[in-house]
């Protein structure tokens, strides 16, 4: 549940499904930011060891992970999303659900984004795209070469997007609201580009996105 601390900081309860690279990194970043975090995985033993490493609570099942959560992070391959959303059913209704999933090749960028497809699978949840433009290696280290990375966010539900923007900022990123969920098509394109550059050029998977220049309205 959402809590306001003495210093005015707001913390939320985060349920993370998936205990791989992203589950680990966002678990660590969320715990460091003071949020209450529960992690589940296909194998409860995996969730236990990652939760212990990052200082989160392990959950014995995906349903347990999201119980009482303000924000649910689907830190799984997109191929697993359909099974997980069908397993959780109405338990996701009304929840802020973060789709972090990426595609891996330009040919996969046709049609609706993964995030829009996730929203179709859970029409009563509030799906927000975030974190897909940030490699796992940077998700718990928001600065690269002294530059604060941006966390690009897209979603149709304004309140849900605000919650995710606060979460992104609490982890040390500058959040950039890119507009409606359909903008996830562009964000997933950014993911494909960074992935293919690192894969094809042998880079060490640490490059990240930063929008430079003024980001406030121009003065008349
Ligand atoms: N790696 C990155 O730098 C990065 C950055 C941004 C976004 N992403 C996206 O983030 C997602 C996760 O990437 P990753 O690198 O963390 O992958 P990963 O290391 O392979 O981890 C995926 C995790 O999902 C779990 N999982 C699969 N099916 C599940 C289910 N039904 N219930 C619960 N857990 C399940 C896996 O468990 P098992 O292994 O036991 O199946 C594993 O713990 C992907 O969609 C990826 O495109 C990745």
Describe the protein in words:
By secondary structure, the chain is an alpha/beta fold. It has one domain (3-201): Rossmann fold (3-Layer(aba) Sandwich). Helix content is 36%, strand content 19%. The protein has eight helices and twelve strands. It has helices at residues 21-32, 44-54, 62-66, 81-88, 114-121, 136-139, 158-170, 184-201, and strands spanning 3-4, 10-11, 13-17, 36-40, 57-58, 71-74, 96-99, 126-129, 143-144, 147-148, 150-155, 174-177. The chain has an eight-stranded mixed beta sheet with strand order 5-4-3-6-7-8-11-12, with helices on both faces. Strand 4 (36-40), helix 2 (44-54) and strand 5 (57-58) form a beta-alpha-beta unit. Helix 1 (21-32) runs parallel beside helix 2 (44-54). The N and C termini lie far apart (43 Å). The mean pLDDT is 96. NADP nicotinamide-adenine-dinucleotide phosphate binds at residues 17-23, 40-43, 46, 62, 75-78, 80, 83-84, 100-102, 131-132, 135-136.
Summarize this structure as a short list of keywords or feature phrases.
220 residues, alpha/beta, two-stranded antiparallel sheet, 12 strands, 36% helix, binds NADP nicotinamide-adenine-dinucleotide phosphate
Topology, please?
Blueprint: E1 3-4, E2 10-11, E3 13-17, H1 21-32, E4 36-40, H2 44-54, E5 57-58, H3 62-66, E6 71-74, H4 81-88, E7 96-99, H5 114-121, E8 126-129, H6 136-139, E9 143-144, E10 147-148, E11 150-155, H7 158-170, E12 174-177, H8 184-201
The structure holds NADP nicotinamide-adenine-dinucleotide phosphate.
- Mean pLDDT equals 96
Order of helices and strands: EEEHEHEHEHEHEHEEEHEH
- Described by the principal axes of the CA atoms, the overall outline is globular
Summarize the main sheet: 8 strands, mixed
Approximately what portion of the residues adopt beta-strand conformation?
15-25%
CATH architecture: 3-Layer(aba) Sandwich
SS-derived structural category:
alpha/beta
CATH class: Alpha Beta
Q: What is the alpha-carbon Rg in Å?
A: 17 Å
Q: What ligands can be seen in this structure?
A: NADP nicotinamide-adenine-dinucleotide phosphate
User: In which order are the strands of the major sheet placed?
Assistant: 5-4-3-6-7-8-11-12
Please give the count of helices: 8
């Amino acid at each position: 549940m959402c809590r306001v601390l003495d210093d005015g900081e707001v913390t939320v309860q985060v349920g993370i499904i998936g205990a791989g690279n992203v589950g680990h990194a966002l678990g660590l970043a969320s715990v460091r930011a003071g949020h209450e975090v529960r992690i589940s995985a296909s194998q409860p033993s995996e969730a236990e060891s990652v939760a212990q490493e990052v200082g989160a609570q392990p959950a014995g099942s995906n349903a347990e992970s999201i119980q009482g959560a303000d924000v649910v992070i689907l830190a799984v391959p997109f191929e697993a999303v359909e099974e997980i959303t069908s397993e959780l059913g109405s338990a996701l209704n009304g929840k802020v659900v973060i789709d972090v999933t990426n595609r891996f090749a330009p040919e996969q960028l046709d049609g609706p984004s993964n995030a829009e497809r996730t929203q179709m699978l859970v029409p009563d949840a509030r799906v927000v795209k975030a974190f897909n433009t940030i490699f796992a290696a940077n998700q718990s280290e928001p600065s690269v070469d002294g530059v604060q990375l941006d966390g690009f966010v897209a979603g149709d539900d304004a309140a849900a997007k605000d919650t995710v923007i606060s979460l992104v900022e609490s982890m040390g990123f500058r959040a950039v609201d890119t507009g409606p969920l359909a903008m996830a098509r562009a964000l997933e394109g950014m993911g494909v580009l960074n992935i293919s550059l690192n894969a094809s050029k042998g880079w060490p998977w640490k490059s990240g996105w930063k929008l430079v220049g003024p980001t406030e309205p121009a003065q008349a």
